[in-house]
Amino acid sequence: MADTKSFTEVKNKILSAHENVALENKLRFYNTWAENYEQDVAVLEYRAPVLAAECVASFFKGDKERALVLDVACGTGLVSAHLRRMGFCQFVGVDGSDGMLDLARKTGLYQELKQCILGQDTLPVQNESYDIVVIVGSLSVGHVPVRVIQELWQATKPGGYVCMTTRGNADNQDYKTEMERMVRMMEEEKRWSCVTVNEVEEWERAVSEHESGYISGTVYLYQRTY
């Protein structure tokens, strides 16, 4: 296991990633970060994976052991690990980073793992196949375009659930507004209904130069209607 870094070291690493906006550079960053990812996000007190998993587990009323879960932007498997502890058993993971997928594979959690650049490649899954679709941490500025939400809906079975998160920090406000506009539009079209929206004040430690303390974040849970 890699040595635990200080908060300042992790903060500088994250800020350096924000400077590299080109896709090739971002993939290289995540491939090299994979080995230390879980230790580093623990330093950030990153709560999104467990909060999303708790939200799903609280509202899902079906058979957890038989439920098919699609973990989009799965990283090393943090969300699925929490869901496994809550009784879910069947996971398919998708991520753009080979390095992250290698570590996710070593967990033994996933029945299948797929490499996909979200927003560039079509989500490599069959439509209407999953009881639960989760995407945690990637719906934010500079990462995954908002239009990917449509693909999450397509992958979900009618009656199934889509769980999404985004950050509430200043740099992400425009993205969050666009994301919520898309979510509301799909609700108005009766493609899904809102189950819960959970605003969390202490989401993770702030890394931006003009913010301190903790940033907020939001967990969204929607149920597909048709």
Spell out the blueprint of helices and strands:
Layout: H1 7-19, H2 23-33, H3 37-43, H4 48-59, E1 68-72, H5 78-85, E2 90-95, H6 98-107, E3 112-115, E4 130-135, H7 148-155, E5 156-167, H8 173-188, E6 192-205, E7 214-224
Parallel strand pairs: 1-2, 1-4, 2-3, 4-5
Antiparallel strand pairs: 5-7, 6-7
Helix pairs in contact: 4-5
Record keyword descriptors for this entry.
alpha/beta; 226 residues
Question: What does this molecule look like?
Answer:
This protein is an alpha/beta fold and 226 residues long. It has helices spanning 7-19, 23-33, 37-43, 48-59, 78-85, 98-107, 148-155, 173-188; strands spanning 68-72, 90-95, 112-115, 130-135, 156-167, 192-205, 214-224. Helix 4 crosses helix 5. The chain starts with 6 loop residues before the first helix and ends with a strand.
Brief summary:
The protein is 38% helix and 26% strand.
Mean pLDDT: 95
State the order of secondary-structure elements, H for helix, E for strand: HHHHEHEHEEHEHEE
Q: For the largest beta sheet, what order do the strands appear in spatially?
A: 3-2-1-4-5-7-6
Indicate the low-confidence ranges by residue numbers.
none
Q: Into which percentage range does the β-strand content fall?
A: 25-35%
Number of strands: 7
Main sheet makeup: 7 strands, mixed
